[in-house]
Amino acid sequence: MTKMLYLEDTYRFETKAKIVKCGEDYIVLDQTIFYPQGGGQPFDCGKIETPNGEIQIHAVRFIDNEIRHFGSINEDWDQTKVLCTIDRERRLLNARYHTTGHLLANIIENIYASLTPTKCHAFPGESYVEFQCDSTTYDLEGVRKRLDDDIHTGLATKIFEINRNLFEKKYYKLPCAVDDDKDFRVLQIADYKPIPCGGTHLNNTQEIGSAIIKKSKIKNNILKVSYEVQSL
Ligand SMILES: [Zn+2]
Hints:
single chain; alpha+beta; Elongation Factor Tu (Ef-tu), domain 3; Threonyl-tRNA Synthetase, Chain A, domain 2; 7-stranded antiparallel sheet; 16 strands; binds zinc ion
């Protein structure tokens, strides 16, 4: 299984690796900094340099238990040592959107305890967080203010690993099924509710720069709050 270096450091943009499988239009590496699309976050793009040429990576997906890096594969590069570089701007933009989604969900849940977050979609231009809800009106002015304040003040984020029993003893009952014995990865922004997540996050909310709530709507007991991260 490919070692997922993107889980260890959001700001690692370059690494050496070895090709361990060469498909028709994809390669698999022994370790990777490329984030495979999932969890509401887009994949990383970038390039992989081989001794005989460069592969532009235009998509990265988790398929059949493999992280597949898609590009033009012209020859059998199995076991070749390579240099991988991801698109820095794209990674950081995705991390800004993704971290904003967490922060916004945390703030809304903190202000409206009856709301349960159900989904976060953090693609630039189409980002939103969704909640199961029971009321038809939510005043988001307080949320807007807190979002501005938390970004401006700068809250540190932390990543830790924990197993289900310990997590539920310390925090809350997990809504989804997870393996009892296996540790899973959790993101926590300052003292907000920790959330299990395998995405790439910023170290501090200040790095978001600026974010706005674009609109909100309620349909079939789902509150959808759309947001945008603004250019730095
Ligand atoms: Zn996350």
